[in-house]
């Protein structure tokens, strides 16, 4: 992929979109960790915490990029990303009540960095796959998406709640990225190169499977939650 070619910009857009789609939990963590601080200190805690989390995210993604060059790990990464795409649709979201608010600047910063590192594995794998093992794409994508997550996270979460179809678009993009990773595994690539129709069919099956399975789980969870609310009332 040539630098700043149309394919490069398309891949960069893909990286940013995936990171934003998967950033809802991270944005919530940032808010919860800094909620007890004075407003004048909150901005510093968010800025420092996000900066530290960004550095860790870049290092972790670079490591994953290197690991994906190991035989069969591109396949493993693709399978993990299929699971992440499914969970994106299936999960109804957590309350994150276990995230403790910091009482000082550096306590909040530490909480943000640790929580983001613990919760950011899905982002790292997804971004590494979407970047097609291109380091510049990883760094640029994260540098663009992280500030949006910090300053526009509330707006983005509201958009997702108002337009649920955005989640499905995200799952489709993740499903495509995952299936593309699998077909680019060096041990499998010759087969898919010889049979391009099967490659297209495989990608379609993965995407459709992720959407259907995630939709069914999401619908079942919503139905169960509604029944519990009716029983309480």
Automatic annotation (TrEMBL):
One Pfam family in the UniProt entry: TerC
GO cellular component: membrane
Keyword entries, A-Z: Membrane, Transmembrane, Transmembrane helix
Protein name per Swiss-Prot or TrEMBL: TerC family protein
Transmembrane segments: 6-33, 45-66, 72-90, 111-129, 135-156, 163-182, 197-215
Organism (species): Paenibacillus barcinonensis
Main location: membrane
Similarity field: Belongs to the TerC family.
Top-level taxon: Bacteria
Topological relation to the membrane, as annotated: Multi-pass membrane protein
């Amino acid at each position: 992929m040539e630098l700043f070619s149309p394919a490069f910009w398309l891949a960069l857009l893909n990286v940013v979109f995936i990171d934003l789609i998967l950033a809802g939990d991270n944005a919530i963590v940032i808010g919860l960790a800094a909620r007890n601080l004075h407003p004048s200190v909150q901005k510093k805690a968010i800025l420092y915490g996000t900066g530290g989390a960004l550095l860790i995210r870049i290092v972790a993604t670079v490591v994953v990029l290197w690991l994906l060059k190991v035989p069969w790990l591109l396949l493993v990464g693709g399978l993990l990303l299929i699971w992440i795409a499914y969970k994106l649709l299936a999960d109804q979201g957590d309350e994150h009540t276990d995230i403790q608010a910091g009482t000082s600047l550096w306590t909040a910063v530490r909480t943000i960095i640790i929580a983001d590192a613990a919760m950011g594995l899905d982002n790292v794998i997804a971004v590494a796959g979407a970047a097609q093992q291109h380091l510049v794409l990883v760094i640029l994508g994260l540098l663009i998406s992280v500030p949006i997550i910090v300053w526009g996270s509330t707006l983005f979460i509201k958009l997702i709640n108002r337009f649920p179809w955005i989640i499905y678009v995200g799952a489709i993009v993740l499903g495509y990225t995952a299936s593309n990773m699998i077909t680019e595994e060096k041990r499998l690539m010759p087969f898919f190169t010889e049979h391009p129709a099967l490659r297209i069919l495989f990608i379609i099956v993965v995407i459709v499977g992720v959407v259907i399975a995630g939709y069914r789980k999401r619908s079942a969870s919503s139905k169960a939650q509604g029944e519990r609310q009716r029983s309480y009332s």
